[in-house]
UniProtKB/TrEMBL annotation:
<protein>
    <recommendedName>
        <fullName>THAP-type domain-containing protein</fullName>
    </recommendedName>
</protein>
<keyword id="KW-0238">DNA-binding</keyword>
<keyword id="KW-0862">Zinc</keyword>
<keyword id="KW-0479">Metal-binding</keyword>
<dbReference type="GO" id="GO:0008270">
    <property type="term" value="F:zinc ion binding"/>
</dbReference>
<dbReference type="InterPro" id="IPR038441">
    <property type="entry name" value="THAP_Znf_sf"/>
</dbReference>
<dbReference type="InterPro" id="IPR006612">
    <property type="entry name" value="THAP_Znf"/>
</dbReference>
<dbReference type="GO" id="GO:0003677">
    <property type="term" value="F:DNA binding"/>
</dbReference>
<keyword id="KW-0863">Zinc-finger</keyword>
<dbReference type="Pfam" id="PF05485">
    <property type="entry name" value="THAP"/>
</dbReference>
<feature type="domain" description="THAP-type">
    <location>
        <begin position="1"/>
        <end position="84"/>
    </location>
</feature>
Length: 101
């Protein structure tokens, strides 16, 4: 089980996403979250807009089109956490866990 690294008061989703490997994308996440992210950090789905999370895969067109539900939802390319990021809330930090800002 993964735990959301954003410790703002919220009911974390069971679905979590790993930090992007691309340094540019990772930088956008760090700026949005207001924290330095490690490879092991995970961010829950509640911090992303619904259109940024892909939970199905589609193929074909017209009457040949079919949809498959993904067991593990994925983020669309360029997705950045935007929701529930109030900087006055508690945020985890390597040195100071759950420090009020």
């Amino acid at each position: 089980m993964y735990i959301c690294c954003v410790h703002a008061p919220h009911d974390a989703s069971k679905t979590t996403f790993s930090v992007p490997k691309n340094e540019g994308e990772k930088g956008k996440w760090e700026k949005a979250l207001g924290m330095v992210l490690k490879k092991s950090h995970r961010v829950c789905a509640k911090h992303f807009e619904t259109h940024e999370i892909k939970s199905t895969w589609e193929s074909g067109e017209g009457s040949n089109k079919y949809t498959i539900c993904l067991k593990i939802p994925r983020l669309v390319e360029g997705a950045v956490p935007k929701l529930m990021l109030n900087c006055e809330n508690k945020v985890s930090n390597d040195q100071n866990k759950n420090v009020e800002v």
